[in-house]
């Protein structure tokens, strides 16, 4: 390029891709030479500074984005925050006329971005943001009374009625670039990669970055999509897309996933495709709720639970749950899958969450925080919705008195005990029925797995009764 060409900063955040990237596209359409930047400012996330597993993923995803940019003649320049002063000094140093970015919806980030946009515009800089993450932005849908939705089914019905498929935009083969301005810091300076390699196991399962996201979508379409409606509840199979971290980091646009699914539509596949798109709908709903009820990562959606008799913190039990040593095999399998891979199957997330909030009667925030630190797909909207839903404190939640029995859940959704055997291998030698409830044969358990807990942290029936009593005391009725 000539040095006279007008430039714009393209501020990458949770949109770590080049295709379907509205901010990048806007910069190019306006005739700017884009200067791709990333600003590391974890302190600006309020109480929800990204967790360790998220950081590990982001490190690799930023690396992949830089490689993708470099292959097109550009590059990613990295900086360490705070965001507004960093943007302002970059505008000066590069002589850029504009800043473009794609929106995020976490309450602290929304507020920060509004302040940044106002400050930049006040100083005469073009500052424009776009929707790069959602099928429907949180404020796009409202009830007839103009209120936010609180129940998924009418929300999703309204969403489908106003559905318009966004066209896919392929990444340009070449990108103009400029050397103006500072180079930024090396990726390692962001200190995102774990110092100890506890994340080693993750990368047998995941390939962060845009190419990894596309590959996951293709694998899903060729495989688990067929039969998804039935298989999605089976943790012993690859029955779901495993797109969640890719969607969280914006390595793929949800509308690209929807278009790819719709392209496969036949009468026979319609049920599976609708079921998969509906799950993406829960992600949309979660963002709708987080935007309209920004206090819910911390506080109950349903204030009736505000003085619920949660267990006082009893650290050893919480730790046993975290470490996959609760003595309930399906719970332990889930928690160990989480630790080793940074992900857990949705059905098992529900089971472990129910066990923590009902049998152990811990406040759901304890679980949400642990997930926040350990999930590679940790997402403030989805995690908040998931925990409040299971705990019974949320919008459109499962009622508190519906307590999952982890033994019958395992029998139903892991019928051969294969998932349990994979993640709690010391129980693999037990006959299948015993894998679900090994305390029923103490001798066999002692022989097969001398180090596995002899019995669950709480007796399942007693834990259930105590939870229901606590609920009734708060005036809850069935
Ligand atoms: P698929 O079944 O293939 O679904 C496709 C996509 O739809 C997912 O990638 C995800 O983006 C979205 N989706 C699916 N189910 C849900 C759901 N119930 N709520 C919102 N979006 C959904 N999901 C996260 O992305 N981040 C979280 O931090 C998170 N925390 C959770 C905590 C609890 C207690 C529970 C019960 C659920 C949580 N979920 C979370 C939702 C769900 O478990 C994961 O999205 C799903 O397991 C991801 O696997 P997948 O990509 O194979 O899903």
From TrEMBL:
<dbReference type="Pfam" id="PF03441">
    <property type="entry name" value="FAD_binding_7"/>
</dbReference>
<feature type="binding site">
    <location>
        <position position="228"/>
    </location>
    <ligand>
        <name>FAD</name>
    </ligand>
</feature>
<feature type="site" description="Electron transfer via tryptophanyl radical">
    <location>
        <position position="387"/>
    </location>
</feature>
<dbReference type="InterPro" id="IPR006050">
    <property type="entry name" value="DNA_photolyase_N"/>
</dbReference>
<dbReference type="GO" id="GO:0009416">
    <property type="term" value="P:response to light stimulus"/>
</dbReference>
<dbReference type="GO" id="GO:0003677">
    <property type="term" value="F:DNA binding"/>
</dbReference>
<dbReference type="Pfam" id="PF00875">
    <property type="entry name" value="DNA_photolyase"/>
</dbReference>
<keyword id="KW-0274">FAD</keyword>
<dbReference type="GO" id="GO:0071949">
    <property type="term" value="F:FAD binding"/>
</dbReference>
<comment type="similarity">
    <text>Belongs to the DNA photolyase family.</text>
</comment>
<dbReference type="InterPro" id="IPR036134">
    <property type="entry name" value="Crypto/Photolyase_FAD-like_sf"/>
</dbReference>
<feature type="binding site">
    <location>
        <begin position="240"/>
        <end position="244"/>
    </location>
    <ligand>
        <name>FAD</name>
    </ligand>
</feature>
<feature type="site" description="Electron transfer via tryptophanyl radical">
    <location>
        <position position="310"/>
    </location>
</feature>
<dbReference type="InterPro" id="IPR002081">
    <property type="entry name" value="Cryptochrome/DNA_photolyase_1"/>
</dbReference>
<keyword id="KW-0456">Lyase</keyword>
<feature type="site" description="Electron transfer via tryptophanyl radical">
    <location>
        <position position="364"/>
    </location>
</feature>
<dbReference type="InterPro" id="IPR014729">
    <property type="entry name" value="Rossmann-like_a/b/a_fold"/>
</dbReference>
<dbReference type="InterPro" id="IPR036155">
    <property type="entry name" value="Crypto/Photolyase_N_sf"/>
</dbReference>
<keyword id="KW-0285">Flavoprotein</keyword>
<feature type="binding site">
    <location>
        <begin position="377"/>
        <end position="379"/>
    </location>
    <ligand>
        <name>FAD</name>
    </ligand>
</feature>
<protein>
    <submittedName>
        <fullName>Deoxyribodipyrimidine photo-lyase</fullName>
    </submittedName>
</protein>
<keyword id="KW-0157">Chromophore</keyword>
<feature type="domain" description="Photolyase/cryptochrome alpha/beta">
    <location>
        <begin position="6"/>
        <end position="135"/>
    </location>
</feature>
<dbReference type="InterPro" id="IPR005101">
    <property type="entry name" value="Cryptochr/Photolyase_FAD-bd"/>
</dbReference>
<dbReference type="GO" id="GO:0003904">
    <property type="term" value="F:deoxyribodipyrimidine photo-lyase activity"/>
</dbReference>
